[in-house]
Design a protein that fits this description.
Distance between the termini: 26 Å
Helix content: 25-40%
CATH class: Alpha Beta
Structural class: alpha/beta
Order of helices and strands: EHEHEEHEHEEEEHHEHE
Number of domains: 1
Strand content: 15-25%
CATH superfamily: Acetylglutamate kinase-like
Number of helices: 7
CATH topology: Carbamate kinase
Largest sheet: 9 strands, mixed
Oligomer: single chain
Radius of gyration: 17 Å
Number of strands: 11
Length: 243
Amino acid sequence: MKEHPIYKRILLELSGEMMGSDNQTIDPAVLHSLTSQISELKDCGLQIAIVIGAGNIWRGAGKQSSMCRNRADMIGMLATVVNAMALQSALESCGVPAVVLSAIKFEPVLEVEYVEPFVAQNAINYLEDGKIVIFGGGTGNPFFTTDTASALRALQIEADALLKATKVDGVYSSDPMKDPDAKKFDTLTCEQALKMGIRVMDAAAFSLCKDNNMPIVVFGLNPEGSIKKIVFGEKIGTIVTPS
């Protein structure tokens, strides 16, 4: 492992499911683990931005009911702000300054000290000031996934890499939970991922990263410490290169 981080600024994508547990929508133990890891990385000089999904709160009921996709997606984007505020609170309780920037404007429902409207330059300024930036509200538009929001925000803040945390330890040829013969890829290009129909990220996210030279690292969040290993140059997970 290298002595210093190989990146200056990262965008970390967390699924909403990772925020919860079987018994709790938002698990304090998970928040504690995330806060501990993020705090350690910040102390190493890393600039960290985060995008969180909402799967622990909302799974797009429009697919299972008569609710239209537009409304279901809007509810999902609102739910991401709940997760973002929960992580912000956990970080601040440990002395780590954090700000939530939302693609959806909340004034006057929420005070500006909790959630601010997203502005790319403001996000960069906060990162350079040593704050953790948490993005909520997705892209602010329906029909776009958390993956697309992560790719978009990573490009807007000029991140060095997009780190996507998953429940498995990288990208496989098929679902390793169902297929014992699934092959893990150490490296992959965005073009290959698109041609093979790899679903670890959606096509729009892969295309954005491919066209704008943004590397993606797909890795398992567990065991604890995986994020640090990546930013310090250890080869874990799968690196998806733009070309």
